[in-house]
Design a protein that fits this description.
single chain, 222 residues, mainly alpha, MetI-like fold
């Protein structure tokens, strides 16, 4: 494994870790709202969040590039407040990864909240527990399987990204080059040995992820 490959692996793990943490913070209130709201906006919001499941990653990356770029509305804002430009930076990759992996975090948590129902929270309310107390001490523990599934899916989905990171981050060694892009570079250069090593690692990682999900599903069975 070359030094650039090792940096790509570490950058991929960093990107996946940061993305997963941010997704848990963002997806949890969204999942709670989707699980309990009766608003007519539920279906449109759900469809919008699930767009990455059916939309080509390059399409999302293209529009994010325009939005976050110097001529885009977000790009103007980030430059005005001194944050600079997000495209072709690590934090630009984080933004793209969070949006691209959003449904993989929201859906498992939402499903757990829906299965839990409203009864446990109502019982806790009769004991005069505040909402945050009820949420943290009742809802979160009962929805633990959904949170674990969301963590596994969000992390693994970020590790395997290609189209979004290529469009939004380019392919800059040490800056935005993740494992999937490193494999692509090796194959283009006909360096099949390093490509096999990285690709084999990805296959092993995918197997562990699927095995973990199967074990989580078995633990939830009565």
């Amino acid at each position: 494994m070359t030094p650039d490959d090792l940096i790509a692996v570490l950058l991929t793990l960093k990107l996946a870790g940061v993305t997963t943490i941010l997704l848990l913070l963002i997806a949890t209130p969204i999942a709670w709202w989707l699980a309990h709201t009766r608003s007519h906006w539920k279906e449109p919001v759900g469809a919008l969040l699930n767009l990455p499941l059916v939309m080509p990653p390059t399409v999302l990356g293209f529009y994010l590039l325009l939005t976050l770029g110097p001529q885009g509305p977000v790009g103007h804002l980030t430059e005005a407040i001194g944050l600079g430009r997000l495209p072709f930076t690590f934090w630009g990759l984080v933004v793209g990864s969070v949006l691209f992996s959003m449904p993989f975090a929201v859906q498992p948590i939402q499903n757990s909240f829906e299965v839990m129902g409203s009864r446990p929270m109502e019982v806790a309310a009769t004991l005069r527990a505040g909402f945050m107390d009820r949420f943290l001490s009742v809802a979160v523990p009962l929805a633990r399987p959904g949170f674990l599934t969301a963590i596994v899916l969000a992390f693994s989905h970020t590790v395997g990204e290609f189209g979004v990171v290529l469009m939004l981050g380019g392919n800059i060694p040490g800056e935005t080059q993740v494992v999937s892009l490193a494999i692509y570079n090796h194959v283009e250069s006909m360096e099949y040995g390093p490509a096999h090593l990285l690709a084999g690692g990805m296959v092993a990682f995918a197997f562990v992820v699927l095995l973990s999900l199967n074990l989580l599903a078995r633990r939830r069975e009565p």
